[in-house]
Automatic annotation (TrEMBL):
One of its GO terms (molecular function) is ATP binding. Keywords: ATP-binding, Cytochrome c-type biogenesis, Membrane, Nucleotide-binding, Translocase, Transport. It comes from the Bacteria. NCBIfam families: ccmA, PRK13538.1. The keyword Signal does not apply. The keyword Translocase applies. CDD domains: ABC_CcmA_heme_exporter. PANTHER family: ABC TRANSPORTER I FAMILY MEMBER 1. This is Cytochrome c biogenesis ATP-binding export protein CcmA. Pfam families: ABC_tran. It comes from Marinobacterium nitratireducens. The gene is ccmA.
């Protein structure tokens, strides 16, 4: 299978005097999709924030392409697409302007695909509407449109199917699988029952105190 894109060794995290996970180790290789499962409060979002470099509240080691994450953080963040609970949309900008701003930060993205990306997430006709006039669900769709533009090898997605109908969920599943088939990898959480073939799962329930 070759060297892992991302390797996690003996991760420990405690929050509010409660151990979320201890001794958590796993690898993610190119072509893989990994679902993080667990009850509410088990640490799923905390883990994804740690993996995305947004939180340092942990002990253990994380490696990107065989090197300690602490030493390659700049390159890692350039290789990462993170989709969190907050959509990261500027309310004063339109959906099209938000994605143009995103594309300007990632030179490998072809801005010519922005219109199609917005159409794919159900925002055709809303391209020029200021985002402060859109619903919270539409804000998430603006953010989700980045998936159709991103060339980042690793996607970390926290509840990416929220506020999307069954057809939309199936389309996003296929998009993630296509990303993996191109040699990318994805780590995600979701309350939806996924039907992806080859999906790996890690359940954080009962991970506290394990080794």
């Amino acid at each position: 299978m070759g060297e892992a894109l991302l390797k996690v060794e003996k991760l420990f995290c405690e929050r509010d005097d409660r151990i979320l996970f201890d001794g958590l180790s796993f690898e993610v290789h190119a072509g893989e999709v990994l679902q993080i499962e667990g009850q509410n409060g088990s640490g799923k979002t905390t883990l994804l924030r740690i993996l995305s470099g947004l939180s340092r509240n942990f002990d253990g080691e994380i490696y990107w392409r065989g090197e300690s994450l602490a030493g390659v953080m700049h390159d890692y963040r350039a290789s990462l697409l993170y989709f969190g609970h907050q959509p990261g949309v500027k309310a004063t900008l339109t959906p099209e302007e938000n994605l143009n701003w995103y594309a300007a930060l990632h030179p490998d993205i072809d801005a010519a695909g922005i219109g199609e990306a917005l159409e794919r997430v159900g925002l055709a006709g809303y391209e020029d509407v200021p985002c402060h006039n859109l619903s919270a669900g539409q804000h998430r769709r603006v953010s989700l449109a980045r998936l159709y533009l991103s060339r980042a090898p690793l996607w970390i997605l926290d509840e990416p199917f929220t506020a999307i109908d069954k057809k939309g969920v199936a389309e996003k599943e296929q998009l993630i699988l296509s990303h993996a088939a191109r040699g990318g990898a994805a780590i995600l959480t979701t309350h939806h029952e996924l039907t992806m073939t080859g999906l790996r799962r890690i359940n954080l329930d009962h991970r506290a105190g394990t080794s």
